[in-house]
UniProtKB/TrEMBL annotation:
Residues 218-240 are annotated as: Disordered. Keywords: Endoplasmic reticulum, Membrane, Transmembrane, Transmembrane helix. This is Derlin. The chain crosses the membrane at residues 57-79, 100-133, 153-185. InterPro entries: DER1 (IPR007599), Rhomboid-like_sf (IPR035952). It is found in: Endoplasmic reticulum membrane. It comes from Merluccius polli (Benguela hake).
């Protein structure tokens, strides 16, 4: 019974969030079990171009380090904000969400060459957080019960927290920059005088991922609800 309930809960997670978080967890488990090593996963342009190890273009986004606080912290934020985006502003637009993944991943890969980053998963998580925070500017956040601020400050708070833990802020800055590029091209520039929509999801992606009908009984996770923990907990301004 418990297994069936868990299975049902798992398959209620929207498909992109489910696929990405599952891939991250399985990759980390494979490294922990020594089935593979991080040296087979990291981003290396020379090995990609000369040895045709093209899987590194994907696997560098799937490994967040060994199981520990940093891994759990990243997984919680990745799952939460990826799911809230997919069930919120990308509700019924799976193809557009996949295209955002591809666009963000491509930009990070290009930038990663110049800043010598070998794993880009954390930067990708920050990108998702940034886009969600800019699309929900009126949500009040509570971070570890210590800080209260509005949602657009969340990526910067996470960057400061990363700095306190002794991590490089280059990763967080990369996620913020790429998130801002996407947000500007998708949400800001099209609404400016003389602006237009530069990011258009290719029809082949729409054909593969968009479905014409949705389950009327599906209950998405509201974007303004905290999600069961107080790390970046949010509340809509003017709400109860």
């Amino acid at each position: 019974m418990a297994y069936q309930s868990l299975q049902q809960e798992y398959f209620q997670i929207p498909i992109v969030t489910r696929a990405y978080t599952t891939a991250c967890v399985l990759t980390t488990a494979a490294v922990q079990l020594e089935l593979i090593t991080p040296f087979q996963l990291y981003f290396n342009p020379d090995l990609i171009l000369r040895n045709y190890q093209v899987w590194r273009l994907i696997t560098n986004f799937l490994f967040f380090g060994p199981v520990g606080f940093n891994f759990l912290f990243n997984m919680i934020f990745l799952y939460r904000y990826c799911r809230m985006l997919e069930e919120g502003s990308f509700r019924g637009r799976t193809a557009d969400f996949v295209f955002m993944f591809l666009f963000g991943g491509l930009l990070m890969t290009i930038f990663g060459i110049f800043v010598s980053l070998v794993f880009l998963g954390q930067a990708f998580t920050i990108m998702l957080v940034y886009v969600w925070s800019r699309r929900n500017p009126n949500v009040r956040m509570n971070f570890f019960g210590l800080l209260n601020f509005q949602a657009p400050f969340l990526p910067w708070v996470l960057m400061g927290f990363s700095l306190l833990l002794g991590n490089s802020i280059i990763v967080d800055l990369l996620g913020i920059v790429v998130g801002h590029v996407y947000f500007f091209l998708e949400d800001v520039f099209p609404n400016q005088p003389g602006g237009g929509r530069w990011l258009k999801t290719p029809s082949i992606i729409k054909m593969l991922f968009d479905t014409p009908e949705e389950d009327a009984n599906y209950n998405p996770l509201p974007e303004e609800r905290p999600g069961g923990f107080a790390w970046g907990e949010g509340q809509q301004l003017g709400g109860q």
